[in-house]
Amino acid sequence: MKRLLHVLSVACIAVAPMLLPATAAAQFAKPEDAVKYRQSVLTVMSNHFGRLAPVVRGQQPYDPAQVKADVALVATLSKLPWSAFGPGTEGGGARPAVWADNAKFKQGQERLHADIAKLVAAADAGDLAQVRTAYGAVGASCKACHDNFRNR
Ligand code: HEC
User: Fold this and answer.
1) 48 among annotated binding-site residues
2) Mind listing the domains of the chain with CATH numbers?
3) Smallest Cα–Cα separation from 38: which of 100, 83, 75?
């Protein structure tokens, strides 16, 4: 039995790379699952990004550790939604342009990642003025993509 399990696990390891999804859609059983996944991640990312708003507006005291924690979550979560926009997952609040002009949609993701990298650096430096500037740039990245690719 033990040997059989070993053989099976070796076989699985050997076969796994071939089973890697050819399209991102294959990561999800149904297209609706992909829509739900990306909307959920975007909602949680947005929540943590939104927690920075009162801080950068000076309505809440600047707690560098808290800002760092929220920014770290935004950075991590911002990597997740995009694989859930694979072929065959049209719908939700996404415009058809996501698939029709996918290169531009990808540029929007790259812009977001570049701006979030600056926000991470600012939060790490513990510099509120820098955090404020970087926060504004990230917000503009969100908006630019939504203007082109999200239904309102
Ligand atoms: C590269 C494009 C792009 C960028 C950048 C982007 N979004 Fe979005 N966002 C979308 C698209 C497309 C949808 C619609 C997804 C759907 O409903 O399937 C969406 C939906 C959302 C939603 C709604 C989720 C739901 O429950 O329906 C929120 C909230 C959101 N985005 C927040 C943000 C925030 C905050 C940022 C920046 C930190 C951001 N997004 C950056 C493309 C983007």
Assistant:
1) no
2) 24-149 (1.20.120.10)
3) 83
- Asked whether the beta carbons of 77 and 48 are under 8 A apart, the reply is yes
Residues paired with residue 94 on neighbouring β-strands, in sequence order: 150
Residue 45 CA, closest ligand 1 atom number: 35
Q: What is the pLDDT of residues 33-89, one digit of tens each?
A: 999 999 999 999 999 999 999 999 999 999 999 999 999 999 999 999 999 999 999
| Its pTM surpasses 0.70 | yes
Could you give the CA distance from residue 102 to residue 109 in angstroms, rounded to a whole number?
11
Ligand 1 and 82: CB distance under 6 A: no
Residue 125 CA to ligand 1 centre (angstroms):
27
Which tens digit of pLDDT belongs to each residue from 65-78? 999 999 999 999 99
